[in-house]
Design brief:
The complex is a heterodimer. Chain A is α+β, with helices and mostly antiparallel strands. Chain A contains five helices and nine strands; from the N terminus they run αβββαββαββββαα. Chain A has a five-stranded antiparallel β-sheet with strand order 3-2-1-4-5. Chain A has a three-stranded mixed β-sheet with strand order 7-6-8, with no helix packed on it. The termini of chain A are far apart. The N terminus and C terminus of chain A are likely disordered. Chain B is 11% helix and 42% strand. Chain B has six helices and 57 strands. The chains are: A alpha+beta, B mainly beta. Chains A and B meet through strand 4, strand 5, strand 6, strand 7 and strand 9 of A and strand 41, strand 46, strand 47 and strand 51 of B.
Chain lengths: 250, 887
């Protein structure tokens, strides 16, 4: 039992080293070109590593390189190589024992390049190896950042996500990853919508007010008041003469 | 025309039932108990012989008065929590004072505040009453650098004097013996002693003496007793003490106008006291009695001795024991009352169903046992039926017997023997864990303490977690609770396994835990004795199972690959997930790191495991269904920014899947800071925060929906949910700060949910979840009206009829616990803090219960009348038919 994984280990070390060498070179070039082109929103690349072992002990090796571009519009792209013959076999074996396929990326900041080196540690995520095999290596990798641009988490899901135990046609399906890569920044939670509410209240108020038109007292009853006033004036103009008549009488 | 309208009125009035309690319902389903905490100062009201008042100041910053006959509270003043409200001293002379930054005088009868005086800054040292010719007129307050004298009648300052050399001399005591002088005592450690006498009239220094002794009290007539801490010697009579313990002197001065008693205590060790007497010559000391360590001294003892009518000495003792129980003892050693003040600091609690009665258990047992032939089974059934009949007859006899007694005498005393589950499981056992390490079993119906158990050797900084491993549902096996006690500093933990109904310690030996425990989780796996398995993860990520029988270990091995758990290190901002391996070791499978430079994790909350969600989705106005995202593994992680600037501060809310570590949602509430209170349940999270810009409290609600189609309707698996849910969020203004929050919980989850919000005023608000719904429309449409959505309003109302505890305020609410009852409509609520309040709430009204005043007579008479009417009309119809046939 123990001898089988050991032989696999030996086999798998060689290609890993090769991939590592290739990717370090890739990282270097990526940085150089980025620095040369644009100093502010320069892209840089970080390694994306994966691990799938029959005995479930993590041994991460290079899967590809993530090209990150910080700044106002964060964007990300991934360049990755195909799975080797050995990797394909290992993956299928891991899937058979319901093992896990893990990925990890180093903790980096997308905006602040100084702190990139200070942070140590990785962000890890996993998916069941069988679902990866059954989905023909079509996975969705999501990178999450916090408000200040630090990578805080990574997640991987496959589509479809279920393990149904269906047999996978060899070689062609398990050669290249079909990866969808997204980067998610935190959404701003809403504030209480006071302005809109007040506006709406005003509109409602106006609507309700329109048919009545909230006329002033005088505007409503001007004719009555006017009529009354005329009547009063008429009567008062009649009265003095009467009064005068009285005075004259006394 | 008028008839239908009146019918409508009746119909609607049924719906618009009042949510508040009626006056005659007060205290019927609820109770409150008030506590004060651990006593720091106690005084007997020695003014008159018949006085039954007792004054206490406690570590919870409470000043209270008790009835010394019954132990009931007369009145209570709850001061500010924390160091701001700390009571430094309580002096008593007709009026009570407590002082710190403030000097206050209280009326002892009513508890009203007489006056309050603001003192100068400076750390408080001592205070005493100053009397002249047997009348107390002033109070002297000694601060670190000043002494002040205040009038007792109105609190005005008579004079204040700076103490000489206050930077070198530590002033410790202030004393007045009824003359025109006030003595202040200062000590320069290992050097000398200063005594300053001030004139009472104008605060002038009359004389100043220095003395080369330290640590003193006043004994006898103005004579000082001093202990030199350097040589551990007592002045005059040298008592050499071998232990490394600073001797403490205790003396008593019964009246401020008279000299202290010449007998005094010298405490040589933590439990070694010597009673000494100063002889009449004023220079020699005679030991009266040596209290050896075997004579156990409780932590605090307050004795009140008095002369009885026949001139014999009587005494009353107030004992404060280590478990925070306050006991009042009278002369012949009779315990008058005991108050369990440990309940003022409840840390966590659980509610456990009561066991079945003997007869019910007998029936249950019959089904539980294995079948052994037809005939024995029939016999067993018959015998249990006979027992049931017996019990029923006994019950009838009891009813008949009690019916003859006058009504007042019939009172069902709840004892531990008569405990049994009621029809609707409304009565439960409340298991409460207090900070002092004392456990209580309280009957939820009456509030009486049925059992208590004091755990010794519990560190003051211990963290408790109470886990119900086996409920009462598995009859021959007793219910089992496990308390995980963890030292906060070292992380070392121990388990206390007990029966929650009787409080007895279980005979099951808990596993030894040599390493610090990081996480504990209760698995749904049960062993052959129906106890759920508790997994404990230590700091090397090794797992210990309890119980760890062979059966359990085998089950764990089989299920290992599907047991996931998470660990959170808030100091590193690290969230990580682990999977169990077959050999009970673990492997780390995911990791999320929130940089601590930006934000720190303040709280993490999963969902309650006993929560049921009845409906999978919500029917919308257009008859389509919006399915809820019901992920049982979802964690709500709340963070606060390290930057406290009001413009840049924020509160982060992360929804993380506990199995895969996938961040489901990530939201940032800008210009906000904590304290954040939140509830996570069903498919929603409600949180409350402080808006720094608008300076107000706000509520925000997040709801998660899968959409109009379910991905996999049969089972939910975190490993197979590739699509992220839709997240809806809305925010409201809440007009009050809050102290705690919890959601109601019912048996099947059919009843609509309410949020129970504890307010600082002591009220508990039952806020319908309907008001916190992110789908509340801004503009009312036909669909939203169909769905019964309330139009959006930015301000959340607080209606006084929503207060479930009407005027029974719960001081300093710390937590609210909810438990389902056997009735779907009813949820049991316990609010705890300084007080404990228990009640029932009906979020959707009592739809499954007939009302108290239901008219049984009317309904049955109507039924009978209809029955007879049908019978008669049938007969008449038959006769008529017969007649017609003859015609």
């Amino acid at each position: 039992m123990a001898s089988v994984p050991r032989s696999f280990l030996l086999l798998s070390i060689i290609p890993t080293i090769l991939i590592l060498c290739a990717d370090f070179a890739c990282c270097n070039t990526g940085r150089k070109t980025g620095d040369g082109l644009d100093t502010d929103f320069s892209g840089f690349s970080v390694p994306l590593e994966h691990s799938f072992e029959v005995d479930d002990v993590s041994r991460f090796r290079m899967r590809g390189a993530l090209q990150l571009r910080g700044g106002r519009e964060t964007s990300v792209s991934l360049s990755q190589s195909q799975l080797s013959e050995e990797d394909r076999n290992t993956l299928k074996e891991v899937a058979a024992v319901d093992g896990l396929y893990k990925i990890r990326v180093p903790r980096v900041s997308l905006t602040d390049r100084q702190t990139e080196r200070q942070m140590d540690g990785y962000l890890t995520a996993f998916v069941r190896a069988c679902s990866l095999v059954e989905s023909h290596l079509s996975d969705v990798i999501t990178l999450h950042t916090d408000v200040s641009g630090y990578l805080i988490g990574v997640s991987i899901v496959t589509i479809p996500g279920a393990c149904r135990g269906t047999e996978v046609e060899d070689e062609v399906d398990l050669e290249a990853f079909n990866t969808t890569l997204t980067i998610i920044v935190p959404t701003n939670a809403p504030q209480p919508e006071t302005a809109l509410f007040i506006e709406r209240m005003d509109i409602e108020h106006e609507k309700r007010g329109k048919p009545q038109e909230q006329k002033s007292f005088f505007a409503k009853y001007w004719y009555l008041i006017l009529g009354g006033a005329i009547f009063l004036m008429a009567s008062s103009s009649a009265q003095p003469s009467a009064g005068g008549a009285e005075e004259q009488q006394s | 025309m008028s008839k239908p309208t009146s019918l409508f009125v009746i119909f609607f009035s049924l719906f618009v039932m009042s949510e508040a309690v009626f006056e005659d319902q007060v205290g019927k389903f609820d109770w409150r108990q008030q506590y004060v905490g651990k006593t720091l100062f106690a005084h007997f009201d020695s003014h008159s012989q018949s006085s039954k008042k007792l004054f206490l100041a406690t570590d919870k910053n409470i000043f209270a008065s008790f009835n010394s006959r019954t132990g009931e509270l007369f009145w209570r003043h709850v001061d500010k929590a924390g160091p701001e409200g700390t009571i430094d001293i309580l002096l008593l002379h007709g009026q009570g004072d407590n002082s710190g930054r403030l000097l206050r005088s209280w009326d002892t009868n009513m508890g009203g505040l007489n006056w309050e005086a603001v003192l100068d800054t400076g750390s408080f040292q001592a205070a005493c009453f100053v009397a002249m010719q047997d009348t107390v007129k002033h109070v002297a307050v000694l601060k670190k650098a000043a002494i002040s004298l205040h009038y007792l009648t109105n609190g005005h300052q008579k004079w204040v004097e700076n103490l000489p050399d206050s930077d070198t001399v530590q002033y410790q005591a202030v004393y007045s013996g009824g003359e025109e002088e006030v003595y202040v005592l200062g000590v320069v450690p290992n050097s000398h002693l200063t005594i300053i006498a001030y004139s009472l009239e104008d605060g002038e220094i009359i004389k100043q003496v220095t003395w080369s002794r330290t640590l003193c009290v006043v004994v006898g007539h103005g004579v000082l007793m001093c202990v030199d801490t350097a040589t551990l010697a007592l002045y005059v009579d040298t008592l050499v003490c071998n232990r490394l313990y600073i001797p403490v002197l205790v003396s008593s001065q019964p009246h401020p106008a008279r000299s202290p008693i010449s007998e005094f205590f010298l405490q040589l060790g933590p439990d070694h006291h010597v009673l000494l007497q100063l002889n009449a010559d004023g220079y020699t000391i005679a030991p009266l009695r040596d209290f050896q360590p075997s004579d156990v001294f409780p932590p605090q003892l307050y004795v009140h001795a008095f002369l009885k009518k026949d001139d014999s000495v009587g005494y009353r003792v107030l004992v404060q024991t280590q478990d925070h129980a306050l006991t009042f003892i009278q002369q012949p050693g009779r315990v008058v009352w005991t108050r369990e003040e440990a309940l003022a600091d409840v840390v966590t609690m659980e509610m456990v169903d009561l066991p079945l009665t003997g007869t019910q258990a007998e029936l249950e047992g019959e089904f539980g046992k294995k079948a052994d032939g037809l005939f024995p089974m029939v016999l067993k059934r018959l015998s249990s039926q006979v027992i049931l009949l017996q019990a029923w007859l006994a019950h009838l006899w009891k009813l008949f017997y009690e019916a003859r007694k006058p009504h007042g005498q019939v009172k069902n005393e709840v004892t531990i023997e008569t405990l049994s589950r009621d029809e609707f499981n409304l009565q439960k056992m409340m298991v409460m864990v207090t900070a002092s390490g004392k456990l209580f079993g309280i009957d939820s119906k009456s509030g009486s303490i049925l059992w208590k158990h004091y755990l010794e050797n519990v560190q003051p900084n211990a963290v408790f977690k109470l886990i119900v491993q086996r409920t009462t549902a598995h009859f021959p096996h007793p219910p089992q609770c496990t308390l995980l006690i963890k030292d906060k500093d070292t992380g070392l933990a121990s388990l206390h396994v007990f029966n929650p109904i009787f409080g007895r310690k279980s005979h099951i030996a808990p596993p030894a835990l040599p390493r610090p425990i990081l996480q504990s989780l209760l698995l749904p796996v049960i062993d052959q004795d129906y106890a759920k398995v508790l997994l404990l993860v230590d700091d090397q990520y090794k797992v210990t199972a309890f119980p760890s029988t062979k059966n359990v270990l085998q089950q764990l091995q089989e299920m290992a690959s599907s047991i996931f758990f998470y660990l959170i290190r808030s100091d590193q901002g690290n969230l990580s997930g682990f999977r169990l391996r077959k050999d009970l070791s673990t492997e780390r499978i995911w990791e999320v790191v929130l940089p601590t430079e930006v934000q720190k994790i303040v709280a993490v909350n999963g969902k309650r495991p006993n929560e049921h969600v009845h409906s999978q989705g919500r029917v919308m106005g257009d008859r389509s269904v919006l399915y809820k995202y019901l992920n049982p593994n979802l964690l709500a992680v709340v963070t606060e920014s390290t930057d406290a600037h009001p413009e840049r501060a924020f509160v982060g809310v992360f929804l993380v899947d506990g199995v895969t570590g996938r961040i489901i949602h990530e939201a940032v509430q800008r210009k906000a800071r904590g304290p954040v209170h939140f509830v996570h349940s069903e498919n929603w999270v409600v949180y409350e925060y402080w808006n720094t810009k608008s300076r107000r409290n706000e509520f925000s609600v997040l709801e998660l929906f899968e959409g109009t189609e379910l991905y996999n309707s049969t089972v939910f698996s975190s490993l197979d949910r590739p699509h992220l849910p839709q997240v809806l969020q809305q925010t409201y203004i809440f007009p009050s700060p809050i102290t705690t929050m919890e959601a109601t919980l019912t048996e099947k989850g059919i009843t609509s949910r309410h949020l129970l919000v504890g307010l600082p005023s002591g009220a508990i608000l039952s806020l319908p979840k309907m008001f916190l719904d992110p789908r509340r429309p801004e503009v009312v449409t036909e669909h939203s009206r169909e769905e019964n959505l309330i139009p959006y309003a930015p301000e959340m109302p607080i209606r006084t009829e929503w207060f479930i505890n009407y005027n029974q305020t719960v001081a300093r609410v710390k937590g609210i616990y909810t438990a389902p009852s056997g009735l779907e409509s009813t949820c049991l609520v316990v609010a705890y803090g300084l007080d404990i309040y228990q009640t029932r709430v009906y979020p959707s009204k009592q739809f499954d219960v007939l009302k108290d005043d239901y008219d049984y007579v009317l309904i049955s008479s109507v039924l009978f009348a209809l029955f007879f009417a049908t019978m008669i009309s049938k007969r008449l119809a038959q006769v008529k038919l017969l007649n017609r046939a003859w015609r």
